[in-house]
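Tutorial sheet, problem 5. The two components below are modelled jointly, 522 residues in total.
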Amino acid sequence: MSDQPAPPETASADDHQSGNDIVTAALLVIGDEILSGRTKDKNIGFVADYCTSIGIDLKEVRIVPDEEERIIEAVNALRTRYTYLFTTGGIGPTHDDITADSVARAFGLPIDVDPRIVEIMKTRYPDRDITPARLRMARVPEGADLVDNKVSGLPGFRVQNVFVLAGVPSVMQGMFDALAPGLRTGRRMLSETIDAGRPEGVIAEPLGSIQKAHPDTVIGSYPYFEDGRFATRVVVRARDKAVLAAVTSEVEAMLATLPRP
Amino acid sequence: MSDQPAPPETASADDHQSGNDIVTAALLVIGDEILSGRTKDKNIGFVADYCTSIGIDLKEVRIVPDEEERIIEAVNALRTRYTYLFTTGGIGPTHDDITADSVARAFGLPIDVDPRIVEIMKTRYPDRDITPARLRMARVPEGADLVDNKVSGLPGFRVQNVFVLAGVPSVMQGMFDALAPGLRTGRRMLSETIDAGRPEGVIAEPLGSIQKAHPDTVIGSYPYFEDGRFATRVVVRARDKAVLAAVTSEVEAMLATLPRP
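Model answer (structure tokens):
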């Protein structure tokens, strides 16, 4: 494992929206509590929805424990492969909060208490409460930009294409709102959902033919089990509105030729 | 990427419970629909709880799209690092169900229609409904064991230390119940949760000292935000009951010395 691979491209805070090309992202959830089941993750679904809505393709999610080597390895694997990497969790003041140090090591950057964050602390706590533990939360890698936190004050940060965010969902969501306007976004993936009624086995062949004929769309088929029987939702996804409408009609026409469910 | 790394150890279906050593697992969730946000994952929390309850440490989770290279890469990375790998999703009959083929490629094994699964199909469908698409669901890598599916009939499968399960939660859960008795399990990790009341910044230093003094426990600190203020839950985890009780008492005694929240 190399410690400092380069990101796939430099994405700076003033990137403007290009609207045409494909922008990708990964999410790294950091925390023993998610892996033990004690805490149920609420951030994956939020980030997935948010990315889709602004035209970023979330391509991979990893959940790793509070272990430095695992975090470094995942940060380096994901930041070099996707346009952006978001991390959640592990930026508090306690001994198990090692995300900032791990990200600094992943980039080979020094890390120290950031005077900008100390200033924010001073507006929130009396001096005697700015303990060494709280100052841990002010440590960010050299050169990092801060990510505003309107919910609880202490910021996340950004190093190159990596955004380091809180794990508490309300705080993470506020940080995401703060950083989103600075993201480069691609052409939005549009989708239509069709309830096919029948089980997947009945529609699989004609649906596969439609997918084959339209490589510029992604047709997903999602079985569900309800009232003792299987049925399927078909989701057609495309970046072009007209293509989406045409392929959706084709799926509906195909379903109309099948015996009623 | 090598195509056929060896698993860290051979785990066969008749492994008996050892009760002492540490058994690890990873979960690989396969599906575009989770990454797009259209479907919210319900399997991660279930597998995390289940593993914890039977003494297996879930150490990593990945979510990847329905893309063969991504699936193969994740399967090989995870099966070689942990005792077990569970996958969910992508074993239906449609064109986007490529998990079985990807797992076969990851192991370098041939894959074909399995007569045992065709027999199960024949008990469920009339012959004319055993379509080529449905037969896709009968394809498993050579030498795979089947994982019983009491919910909807068609089985998952196991190759070495990799269990390939359905994505629909009720079906996946049934399969997990079926395979769990065959797993080797370690000594269960026990835990105690203490509501510390105060924000993390207040308890971080004394809590860090307690963690340092007890390297055989894992002390987690989980902030939450409620009614406009931060508080913290402390979770002490240990495999030994007496150690757990002693460290929990130490945390409670420490909290009692702090000013009231």
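Marking note: The longest strand of chain A covers residues 229-238. Full credit if you identified this.
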